[in-house]
Structures are given as structure tokens and as C-alpha cells.
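Re-running the complex after MR caught last week's input typo. The corrected sequence lines follow. Everything else is unchanged.
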Amino acid sequence: MDIGWFLPEAIANMAEKVDSLFILISWVSLAIFILVEMLLFIFLIRYRRRRSDDQGLSIHGNTKIEIIWTVIPAIILVIIGVLGSQLTYDIQRPPKDVYTIEVAGKKWAWDFKYPEGFKTTNELRVPEGKNILFKITSNDVIHSFWIPALRMKQDAVPGRQTQFWTGALKKGTYSIPCAEYCGTMHSMMLGKLTVVSQDDFNQFVKSGGKGGTTTSSSASPAEKGKALAQSSGCLNCHAVDSSKLFGPGWGGVYGKSKKLADGSTVMYDDQYIVESIMKPSAKIPEGYTAPMPPQNLTEDEARLIAEYMKTLK
Amino acid sequence: MTGEHAVRRGFVRDWLLTVDHKKIGIMYGIACLIFFFLGGAAALLIRTVLWKPGTPEILPGPDSFNQLFTMHGTIMIFLFMIPMLTAAFGNYLIPIMIGARDMAFPRMNLLAFWIFILGGLVILSSFFLGIPDTGWTAYPPYSIQTPGVGLDLWVAAVHILGLSSILGSINIIVTVFNLRASGMTFNRLPLLVWAMLVTAFIQLFGTPALAGAVTTLLLDRHAGTIFYTASMGGDPMLYQHLFWFYSHPAVYVMILPAMGLVSEIIPVFARKPIFGYRAIAYSSVTIGFLGFLVWAHHMFTAGMSLSAGIPFMITSMIIAVPSAIKIFNWLATLWRGSNVFTTPMLYSTFGFMGLFTIGGLSGLYLAAVPVDIHVHDTYFVIGHFHYVLFGGSMMAVLAGIFYWFPKVTGRMYSEKLGLWSFWTSFIGTNLTFFPMFYVGVMGMPRRVFQYDINLQFANDVATIGSYILGIGAILMVTNIIISLRSKVKAPDNPWGAKTLEWSVSSPPPEHNFRETPVVTSTPYDFGVASPRQFNEENVGTR
Ligand SMILES: [Cu+2]
Ligand SMILES: [Cu+2]
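Corrected-run output:
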């Protein structure tokens, strides 16, 4: 019987191996489950009390049978343990020829640094058919880098490097949730893995991590700003309406005056927006005590985002 | 006026300042049930938010969601399950079951109770002063950075509650070793007492590790120390080691007494001796030891090398064996019994045995390192430990509440309502927690409000299940309240049970026994050599 529906799509060899262990454990569990529940049901019903003064049989135990039901589960568990150990070693040992991508978790986005030197946020793009090694760390608190389609996960721990590797991948788009609770917007810390052909990947590298991600060059500044805000993880902290997530909402604020934490007011215009993005600690809005964590955008990109913010009601 | 005054002082003296182990046990029980409803309300709110994915609309903001699951976990573990089992059942039952008049240190017992209440109040005060949002595990560095006093209150409460359970454990250990009635040898101890004794040792050895972990957290927060600050040479993983060195054994603190409870109940309603008394008793001891050797199975993906997880995978597999032994022994107890389906029996068999099995089996996935890499920190884990703690421990607690209700109150409960509350909680448990395995494997992390829209149906089933559980809980309390008011007096021994508490009146007299009992056999001497012979001779059951 295929119980694959109980598992998400597996896009690598190793993921399939993990699945086969998963399925093995499922069969063992199912067998034990059926045995126990069946006996439970049968004994309870078959030996239910028929007359109010009926008594059970006075047997206190049986050493032989105790030994049997100690040893058999132990053997089953040892087998699972041995298979599990072998697979653990396989998962741990990366092959020699790997393409290494550095992953850094931060509140609340994933940064990816490619060997060619460029960086992306939340957008992880890899070529199909290559071995890839992820070296994982964190810039602030503990996160956990999880790619369900690979069945792989390692915590991103500040001051420590963890890693996992994967063999050839299948083309497609897959999610990268953060699995370790990391604060307010942990739920929204979602990256995206895109597996593309080697050609497309070369294109992507040549463009310094931009190729194909953002909108075409013919898009309006506001549209470009929107794409930037999405890919840079701004929207994890800022709502596009006026509601407060971790940071202030962006909807309907442009062109109005804004109260700051020190009691003064400023005009919410392009200049304020760009300054807020490039130098978050310069002006802090009312209701906040700590500045926004630094964002890696250029001033031009910040202007595009300002264009986008103008369109939000 | 004066009359009322006298009554009031009587209440303070009779209850709040009592050193009677039974009354202290009852007070623990009531306090724990109140906390249970609080923690349950948080759970229902969480499930309501999860009705659909996205930023919670019914809450002020994302932080409130994080605070909710923190409070749910903290309350259910520290203010409900641990004290309910070890302190409420422990206090009421241990002395009377071993033929003692009270605990070894009655005043310390009262002190431990009030320290517990203080700890509970500190946690409740955070609703007004600032709620922690770290999850009940409070991992640094997040827990060091999180602003407000919420986490400080949490740390204070953990310390206070830890002190209470250390005092309680000492009391239980000394009581069991020194106050057994004559003839009550260790091999005649009720299995619940065995379980409680092992549990007390676990708490005594484990709690200090937790205290150390949270103290260093507090120092990092306020005294400028760097235990967990990586950039200055600290190590956040040290906390996780300390935390789980306590908190894995704490899982057994929450399951061993539950196993003890059903070990008392099943033989009585099967009218058969417990099968394999020694196997059950000694497997509790084995679990107690092994429980301290598995903690790092919570950390397979935390940053240690994967192969370092292998020894912990092996120990975690081994610890499943003593639990399996117990399940098989209970099954064998039912075999050729004369099983009657009272509410406590249903909770113990279909409830505890049936659901704990699922909880235990799902643990195999988590123990296996390669599979755990995928399912760790997902809803699969939530499903697993709720099958253990709700399907297991909670079912046993409910079994226990109904089983000892006549003894404690002197009134019978309503069997009809009891059956209703059993079936609602049984169905509710499965509807709530089974879908969690599925959504976890499919990619939903724990502690999130955002999830893939394809998983909404499964989440909705879980939410509906949780409402059914809520109804079950209300039915249970309704039953208690209605039965307390009823005029139907409970007999001294309605179940024909043989542990010592049933040999005295219901409720028991102030110092339990007018004459110190003398014990001559285990409390499970039920059954006859051949059922036919019994029917012919028609021997009385008591
Ligand atoms: Cu996270
Ligand atoms: Cu554990």
C-alpha cells in the first residue's frame, strides 16, 4: 500500500531514503497499534461481566510471557535503531564536490550568500542536478532552517555553524519555513526554494541574484518597489494596511504627519522613508523603543519602496 | 453575625491551614482544575486562531498568539499536570494507601501547597504585568532579548514551583520509606505508590537542573552575564541541555503516576489480580533511571553533530520497552477478567491504554534521528506529546477523579454523565490531535499562525475536536458539581477494591485509621481459580 499521501513531495535521493525509514516505522507502528487495540477491544468485550458477581481468573503473572514481550519489542527497536544509525551517518557526510551556500537566519527572514559573492533574501535559487551544501548560522536568535521537501532541518544558532547537504534536486518551487520559534513574526519567516535548470541558474548568477526574481525592467517604480518589499522580507514586519505587526503598518500613512517617540512630529514623505530605511535609528516612531534591524538595501531601492508605499491606502 | 464569623474562621482553620494530607490533596486538586480550565481556554483560543491561516484576527496582534501558547504550555505542565498527579493524587492517596495517618511532614506539606499557590499567582500576575512570549521552553538568546517582565515572572514562578515540588518529593520519599503499616512490604505496595516514589526521586534529581538553567537565564537578562551569549563566548545550547535534562524526565513525572492510577483501576473492574505486579513496578524504576539518559533527543537538529544523536536515539528506543511491558501487562490483566464498563474503567482502557499506545508509537518517529530531522519542531511533535499527555495522562487523571470520587466526597457520581464525558473526551482527543501528525509531516512548524492553505481542512478538524474536548471538560465538572449536591451516599467500598483507603469510611475519618491496619497480601487479590467454582459456591466478593 502506498502511504505517500501522508508525506510531502520528496525532491532528493536522501529525502526518499528518509521516507523509506519513515514508512518502515509506520508499518511497525501500525502492526503494533492494530495488535494492541485489537487485543484491548477483544478482551474487554469477550470478557465483559455478564453477572454482577462474576469474577476473573486469579492468575498473577507468567515469567515466560513477560520475557517474550520484553525481548520482541526490544529486537524490533534495535533493528530500527541500527537502520536509523546507518542513515544518520549517510546524512552527515557531505560529498566532495559541493556548491556551498551560506544561510543566515535573522528576525524574520533568511539571507543566502552565494559563493560568487552576491546575496539574496528569502529567495533561495539553486541549479538542478548539483550537490549543494548549506552552511547555516544566525545573526540574532535561534531559527531553524527547514526544507520539508528535502526532509532536512538544522537550527540556525548564533555563534555556531551547522550544515546539511543535498544531492541532485527536482525542478520546482518549495517552501522554507522557520521551525524554531524566534519571536513575534516567527510564523511569517518563510523562504522560498526554487530549483532551476543550470542555464537559468547561470543567468541568475550573472545578474548578481536578481535575474528572474524581480519584475521586468519595464515595470513601474511602484511595482518594482512592491517586488523589493516582498523579496526583502519587509512585509514580515510591516502590514500593507494600517495594522501594526512588528513594525508600523504602511497603509494610508504617506503624506501625513507622523508622531515620533521623542514627541516631535515629521512629515511622512520620501525623505523620511528613505532615512528610516537607511538609518533606522535616526527617527523612531511613537510606540517603539528599539530601532528596526538594519536592512540591506541601497538608497535607490529605498526610493522604489517609497514609491510603492505611496500607493498603499 | 457571630455565627458567620465562626464559620469563616472554621474554614480557614479547617481547610486553608489544615495539615491533613487529604484536605491538602483536595485543595491541590481544586486549584489544579481551575488552572486546567485556564490553560484549556488558552488552547481553545489558539485553535480558534488556527481555524484559518494568517495573522490572527481575533487577537490584538501576533505577540498575543505567542503569549497564548506560552501560557498554555506553562500552565498545563507546571500548574496542572505535574501538581495534579504528584501533589493532588499523591497527597490524598499515598499515606492512606500505605496505612499511614498522614504524610511524614504534615506542616511541610502545607507549606509546599502555599508555595505552589504563590507560584501560580506569580504566573497569573503576568496577565496584568506582562505575559511571557518565549514558549514554555524559553530558549535563549530569544528569552534574553524579549522585553518586559513577563519572562522574569516566569523564571520566578518556575523557581517557586520547583521549590514546592522538591518539598513535596522529599515528603513522599520519607513517607513511603518510613510510614508503611506493618506488613506493607515494598512488594505489597500498591503500584500507584511505586510510581509516585519513582516520580518523587525524578523530581528531586531533575528540578535543580531546571533551576540552574532558568537562574542563568535571569542573570544573563539582568546581571550582564554571558552564559548564553555566543558573541562573547557563551553557548545557547548549554541551556537546552540543562533544560531538557530536567524536562525529559518531567515527561515521566507526568506519565508514571498516570500509569500508577490505571494500574489501580484496571484490576478492580476486571476483578482479576494485576498481571505481572513486579514487572510493572520495576519497569517504573527502569523508566526512572533511563529517563535521565535520553534528553538530547530534543536536540538532534539543534547544532550537535548528527552522529552524536545516535546514543540518544538508542536510549530513547530502549525506554519504549518498559512502557510496552506495562501495556502488555494491563492487556493480560483484562484477559479472562470480568470486565465492567464504569466511567473510570473506560477512561483507563479505551482512553489511557488505547491512546497512550498511539502517543508511544509516534515517539518512535521522533527517536529515529533521520526521521526526527524532518518532524522535529513541527506539529507532529505536538500531536505526539498530546497523545501522551492528554490521551495518556489526562485520561488517567479523569479515571482517577471518578474512581476516587465516592471515597473523597462520600457521594456517588452520575454514571450516565460520566459515560457522556468519556465519549466526548475520547472522540475530541482523536479529532484534535490526530490531524496534527499529518499537518506536521506535511510542513507545518509548531508555534505558528501561518500555514499552507492546503492544510486548512486538517486544522479545522483539529479545531472542532478541541471544542468537543471543551464540552467533555464541562460535562466532567458538571458531573462533579451535581454529584456533590446529590443526597446519594456512597458506600465505603462501592467498587469492592482492596487497597487500604477502601477499608475505611467514605470520606475517611480524620486520621484515616482508627486502628493501624496490618497488611498480609498485595492489594490485587481478586479472582478465583476457576470462574465456575465461584458461581457454584457463590463466595462473597468482599
Ligand atoms: Cu522562527
Ligand atoms: Cu524527551
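None of the earlier attempt is carried over here. The radius of gyration of chain B is 23 Å. Residues 22-539 of chain B form a domain with the Cytochrome C Oxidase; Chain A fold (CATH 1.20.210.10).
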